[in-house]
Amino acid sequence: MAVDSTLPSAVGATGSEKDAKPLLFIEEMTKNVDSDQERVLGEILTRNGETEYLKRFNLNGATDRETFKSKIPVVIYEDLQPEIQRIANGDKSPILSSHPISEFLTSSGTSAGERKLMPTIHEELDRRQLLYSLLMPVMNLYVPGLDKGKGLYFLFIKAETKTPGGLLARPVLTSYYKSEHFKNRPYDPFNVYTSPNETILCPDSIQSMYAQMLCGLIMREEVLRVGAVFASGLLKAIRFLQVNWKQFAHDIETGTLNPKVTDPSVRECMNKILKPNPELAAFVTKECSEENWERIITRVWPNTKYLDVIVTGAMAQYIPTLEYYSGGLPMACTMYASSECYFGLNLKPMCKPSEVSYTIMPNMAYFEFLPHESSAPELSRDSPPRLVDLAVLQVGKEYELIVTTYAGLCRYRVGDILKVTGFHNAAPQFRFIRRKNVLLSIDFDKTDESELQQAIENALVLLKEFNTSVVEYTSYAETKHIPGHYVIYWELLVKDAANAPTDQFLSQCCFEMEESLNVVYRQCRVADSIGPLEIRVVKNGTFEELMDYAISRGASINQYKVPRCVSFTPIMELLDSRVVSKHFSPALPHWKPERRR
Ligand code: AMP
Questions:
Q1: Edge-to-edge strand order for the sheet containing 579-584?
Q2: Which residue range or ranges hold the GH3 C-terminal domain (predicted)?
């Protein structure tokens, strides 16, 4: 068994007393995984035992694992939707949690096209902050001197809405950045950002990005790390620089702020930072006007030691682009978290992206694992699955993550598939393998097979007018260009050649598909983090060739299914060599912050 316990010997390595306590905490937590998990479940069941939800399953005051496992069902979001809807409508009785639900966190996962609403309680902020407080002490073990400069992080808040009962519904990071925990965080020389709070908290994401980038340029010599939460966010910032560098150079040269930034608090804080600096303006102009943007990050921010961005899971597709812009700087994936619960951290943040493993912290929630075999049938209510506890997982096996949280989610399927790669002390470490059922993802969007199928069907209704049908289709997340976009390959059966669908019409089909995709996709489109959807019409017979190719590589003729998403280069090359026409969505799909229902 690969047991890794490098952290204890490294505790003294930073020489920082401040770090010793959090590092020791990690050691303690990872040594006593099983007893900590037992304690956490006991605490959750003691406090939530009298909730309407748990009473339904007759726990009768039991707080032990065996009773819990034998009586409480494993659920997905849709199972809890009636309870969640009641809470959203204003029912304040203890339905899921004995502590009042303080707000809903809007997950990027969707249900029936809408973002899922995750209930949370106020004290969860403490747990999230605790996990954040462990990140820099671990990083300091590997990268010295981070207290000598600043972090250029592109952090944003998003639109908030209110549920009919008056509870806030917003993304977890918006909730965190707006909390006192973040706004009034004590000064820590290891965690100084170039972005003032006012720029992060500006609700207009373009003004926010503008001000954050401008600060990054002004303080460029001080920047030691550059980051965003996910890789897609950092790439969006690079594109923003590409589009706006002339205006930045103008602002820096004259010491005046672009009048399009109208937010009074952003203007006030930027006016204190911005001074005429013709030399810096000339530098920005020289670097950004070059045709070649290779290594632009290290050219503009020459002291950057690493990029702080998540490039695991769906974000792995951005690694080559980030390597190009950064000249191969290390990419640190520091933590693994969700709206349901923050899970854990990477204890070796400077490792290669392909080797990233996260250690789940057993104090965050009670964790169970469903052994995952891709061929296994779906869970059925009649034969409850055997879930495995955190402390007894096996190296090399894949599991689906299931959480029971202090906020009242019980045995909830998060939808992530993880593989155990080893242990740190007694705590298993996980490689993020993939999200269940997600086919396409560019930014925060997650489109599954049935959503894509539905979008195709909606477009097909339009095609009927031309007596045309779609013989086969597949899809691809094109991320070589920023912003990335969805590509749908269509093989058409045109029954009346004289009345074949026109370019204008196929573009309309692209738009129709975008209108049918979920709210997160549409929001990302409106925010320009996803480009217009593209249909590539391929020659007749292309999908048969695809099948022949798969069979030549060992697929069984009986079981062959057209892949609904492709990414393997030879397959892409085959498809692209058969393209007869390309069509793009001509307009932005509908998106408004409020929920449709
Ligand atoms: P959300 O609920 O919108 O915050 O999304 C949470 C989901 O994002 C998780 O369940 C994962 O699927 C994904 N995610 C979060 N952190 C990571 C990470 N470090 N690596 C890969 N995927 C991640």
A1: 468-478, 485-494, 534-538, 579-584
A2: 451-568
